[in-house]
Amino acid sequence: MLSALSFLIHGKNIEKQEHNLKELEILYSINKNRPVRDANGNRFTSDELTEDLSKRITTLNLEAFRPVVFGVFEKLAEQDDALHYFVLVSTYRLTDEKFRESLEDLTLKQKLMTKIDGEFRYRLYSKPIEQNNIPQLAWDITPVLQNREVTEKDSPVSSNGHSIIKPVDEWGLISQEFRSILNCEELIQSAREGQSIEFFHLDQITFYKNLLDMHRGVSSDLFQLDSDNHFYQSKPCRVEEWNLTTTRTVHQKHIFLANQLSEVVRHLKDDFVFETSNSMRLLIQKYLIDEQYIFSDYFDSLLECSTNLQYRTIVETLPSLNLQSTSNRFEVCDEIFEIVSAHYHVIREMNEIVRRINDYSPIILNEISFIGSQSAPQFYSRQMWRRMNVSLIHSIVNKLAEMLTTPDAELMELLTDAGDAKMIKDPSIWQRLNPLTMESSQCIDEGLANRVADLIIGYQFFIKDKKNKSQKSDESTFGISDIQDAEELELFAKTCNFEKIIDDILSDVDMSSTDGNLDELSTCINKLLEQVPTKTIVEKYSQIVLEKSVRFFEFLKTFFTSAYIHLKSKNILSQATLDMLEREKMHKKGYDSEFLKTVGYDMKSTMEDSLLTVNPPEPLNVFVTTGVTDIYSQVFTVLNMLHTALDAVIETKNSETLKHEPRLRYAFFHMNTTVFAIRKNMLSLIEASYETFMKTLDFKKPSVNRSSHQLLNVCYRAHRKFIRDVAGALMLTSKRGTTGRVIRLMVSSVTQASKACLSGDAVGADRYYQQFQTNLLIFLDQCRLDHTRYPLYRSLEIGSDEADGRRSLNSSYSDDLSCRSY
Amino acid sequence: MSGTGALMTVHVGQCGNQLAQAFWKSMVDEHGINERGQTTHEDDMNDKKDLLFYQADDDHYVPRAVLVDLEPRVINGMMQSPNFSNLFNTDNIFLSDHGGGAGNNWASGYCQGQEVQEKIMDIIIREAENTDNLDGILFTHSVSGGTGSGTGSLLLERLREAFPKKVIQTYSVFANSDTSQTTDVVVHPYNWVLSMQRLIEQPDHVVVLDNAALHRLAAGKFKTDTPTFDHINSLVARIMSTSTAMYRFNSPVCPSIRYLDLAPFPPMHFIQSAISPVVDPNENFTRKTSVADVTRFLLKPTSMMVSTASRARPNDCMLSAYMFLQGQIEAHTIMSAEQNVDFAIRRPPFYMLKPLRMMHAPLSPYVRPQYKVSGLLLNNSTSVAPLFESLLSKYDKLRSKKAFIDKFEKIDNFSLDMMDEAMHIVQDLLDEYKAVVQKDYLTRGL
């Protein structure tokens, strides 16, 4: 027995065997006395001690050593009950540090454990060193064997029954013990109230449970709801060793917070709607409900009553609080408070948002939630914002996907009506037609937002146009394939394949990742645009519109610069003559019959020189605003007036009046050359602008590799410039309308001179010629204001040259033109 | 009257019909019409085929042309060529029954014409009435032979009578040769004087085509020492084609021949022409043309296609001129060119205006142009007078010797008074040319 005991404690270390007898004595004492007792003085059995050790190993975080320790005990239990009990008690008495140190040290020495990177690991299949079936201990119990204290019985704790307490000591004074009882808070309170008081004395777990329940809006014995649904503490309470005051202090701020939270939650419930057209509202409602569940699940998980948590994945990412530990109860309470407060603040924000939901667009909400997820002070609220952010990204992407593939999607959820294209910076061609914009934010830059908005509007126009065209089968604007494209896209959007694409895109947004990226939304949208074939369709459509636009411009230019030539009546246009334009089958004259229909007569116009209107079908109408039409109309009128004058002069050519009047002949020649030159200059300037315009529109050049859609914008700007140039060519810009009036005066004197001439009134003709000259001078005065174009008209100046009619003194035709630069 | 009307062509005599051949060949090409009158290209919106063609019931295009000759050789030859056999309306062809021609005698042509004029006028009037809106008649003939000058003169009289308000523009081939090599007609000065009277009195514009100058140009530019009529006619066809391009290809600047105001002081309506560049079509064209050098060339007095161009006098004045530039030209190039050439032009002293109008004439959308820039100048200048003086002096020489006068005298209904009258009228024209360069032209006689 002696050697077995010695081997057990010291192994084969012979030197220490001198204490053998003493140890044997202790062995006997321990087995005899069973010194480890509970509060009532009951002895611990070996099983109870084993259980205690097991807990101790867990608490000391020595799980790795469990197989070694229990291997030894199992062996001992098999071999020798006395030894087994002795070791249990000795180990029980051993301090935690000594136990840990010796265990770590000896197990390594005995090669039962390995230490890798500071971490202890059990060596598989290793067994304790044994001698005669007695194992050597893998930890050192010698420190407790130094004296006999180990064998001393634990004294039972005296119960505090009233009978035991002695209120007065032997000196007749109130005893120490009694004094402390009298000092006790509960007693004082009871004395103050004059009656006995009831209070809860809760253990830690129950306390936490009640606390967490309250935050979840669940009442308990401790925290009850009053008639206003406010929590209050039903009875005084103390938790473990906390006294009533401490507990109350802790409770107070929790109750306050819980009431705030429940207030907000109640508000939310009141505002809750089941049906609304505002999908953002629905989204936030769903989010709020989910958040409530997460909040609740989280507390369940903390209380370890989590059998089936709905949001386990989310909850697991949240910090776990050790509710068991007694040492840091204040800390845990504070942490709970922090979490609830974080939850409360986010919920309160949401409540505000729900109340004014119409002020928030998904994009703004997304930005808010992104900022929240980055900058909220508590981890919990950052997580909440992050979840909001993710669900918004999902929602936005889904909505966009719908808008880009479905003809009747609700656009206004993401797009806003700017009212006028002028309000949009750098609007695209589609935005000019339908001034919708998408908001930009930190998360989605303006360029992308515009691109998306633009694509959506473009797609809508395509659909609209397609529908119109499919009703009229004679139009060949759309190839069959385009219509098929659109329909296929619509069908495609309803397949699971499409859903998969969207899911793939969204799978990049990791809900559980704690920090989102600023460009997450942009990335998703960009991916969506890449994956959805709408871009190609809109591009194709743009191509068609582009080609049509170029034809349209050509038509506008030819029509307004030459259509008057084909008019039979030279009078100012009227509805009748315009109808005639069509009836006369102007398209036979080369005008596009499709566009010819778009030219109309402005019945309301009071200005004589803006009588024509152009109303092309969408989307071509983007090019002809009222201002533009006005200029085209004025081009028509001014050129028509000049043409009329020219016609009148020509009529006089064979007139008898001129036969013997070389002066009048010259006068008419002068009028002819002047009117001809003005008209030719105007036409040439328009032509020059048109050439520049068409050069800009020459998209077939290989160097141009922009999308048709971008080209449409180029087209728009080029046309605007063309119109400005045309207005300049007709000098409509400098003094609006003045040129028209001067020309009208000139024209009328020319016409009257011609009439006089035809009726044989040479004097009258001459008088009108004088008038014409005066008007010409006025016209030239006006031209002089226009520095760039005046050189064209300088040659019309009357009498500016030398008397012999030339400036050069060289012979009739100068051969030295070669030295001139052109 | 407004809008853009149609043009009709009347071709008289051997020369006139040869010009018809060259002209219509280029017209069918430029308007994308094949030898059967069918279109060969998709219609271009600027191509106004109906200006010179009308559409038959089966929609094929038929030239609005009337071909007249007193002898069948040229027209028959033309009708047998695959290019034209199915193109023209055979009802529009007039060939004299006896087919002997006019024997290079104006009087013969004129008097024979009197016998058949009603038939010819019937054709012309029918053709004119088939058109909604006839603006003018292009007339090609020569003034040195018999039919073109004689019958041509008669027809001009009748045309003016029938169409007092239409523009009649003749392309008249003049023969002026000191060596008499280019013409075998010794009496051409007689024929010329007699025709000249009608050219002064009837048409609105006479484009003077001087055979000798054309020969010289062809010989100089084409790689041949003996240019054929085909060479020369191709030059004339180009003049005719370019001068009508504005109307044929829908230019709003000058939409119709009515707007051509080349003759402010009739009867000074004799138009000289110049074209640039001229190269042999079989040669590779290596020069780079530009508006500047085309303009420069066209405005040189020596570029005028009259044989007396080198005799230009310092006080010659431009009365009115149109310069048509074709090719890849930007509108502003012409505008700036126009401002620059202004200095180089001499005009009558009383002119306070600029007689030259430069414009961009459209090209056929179907034919690839030979040049980047080409041009035609139609110039009504007093510098044409020396040609008439030269021809008149030749006439005087013959007349004073009474040479070959019997050939004329023997024709019935012709008297020498007609010749003398014509001579006086030509003389008056020459006086007018002298007067117009004077300061007091407008106030003369007041």
TrEMBL record, chain A:
Taxonomic source organism: Caenorhabditis tropicalis
InterPro entries for this protein: GCP_C_sf
Highest taxon in the source lineage: Eukaryota
Annotated protein name in UniProt: DH domain-containing protein
Automatic annotation (TrEMBL), chain B:
Tagged with keyword GTP-binding: yes
CC terms in the record's Gene Ontology section: centrosome; gamma-tubulin complex; microtubule
Tubulin/FtsZ GTPase domain segment(s): 49-251
Gene3D superfamilies per record: Helix hairpin bin (1.10.287.600), Tubulin/FtsZ, C-terminal domain (3.30.1330.20), Tubulin/FtsZ, GTPase domain (3.40.50.1440)
Name under which the protein is recorded: Tubulin gamma chain
SUPFAM superfamilies registered for this protein in UniProt: Tubulin C-terminal domain-like, Tubulin nucleotide-binding domain-like
Range of residues in the leader sequence: none
Task of the protein: Tubulin is the major constituent of microtubules, protein filaments consisting of alpha- and beta-tubulin heterodimers. Gamma-tubulin is a key component of the gamma-tubulin ring complex (gTuRC) which mediates microtubule nucleation. The gTuRC regulates the minus-end nucleation of alpha-beta tubulin heterodimers that grow into microtubule protafilaments, a critical step in centrosome duplication and spindle formation.
SMART domains: Tubulin
Matches recorded under InterPro entries: Gamma_tubulin (IPR002454), Tub_FtsZ_C (IPR008280), Tubulin (IPR000217), Tubulin/FtsZ-like_C (IPR037103), Tubulin/FtsZ_2-layer-sand-dom (IPR018316), Tubulin/FtsZ_GTPase_sf (IPR036525), Tubulin_C (IPR023123), Tubulin_CS (IPR017975)
Keywords of the record: Cytoplasm, Cytoskeleton, GTP-binding, Microtubule, Nucleotide-binding
PROSITE patterns: TUBULIN
One Gene Ontology term from the biological process aspect of the record: nuclear division
Major subcellular site: cytoplasm
Pfam families in UniProt: Tubulin (PF00091), Tubulin_C (PF03953)
Organism: Caenorhabditis tropicalis
Compartments where located: Cytoplasm, Cytoskeleton, Microtubule organizing center, Centrosome
GO molecular function, a single term: GTP binding
Family: Belongs to the tubulin family.
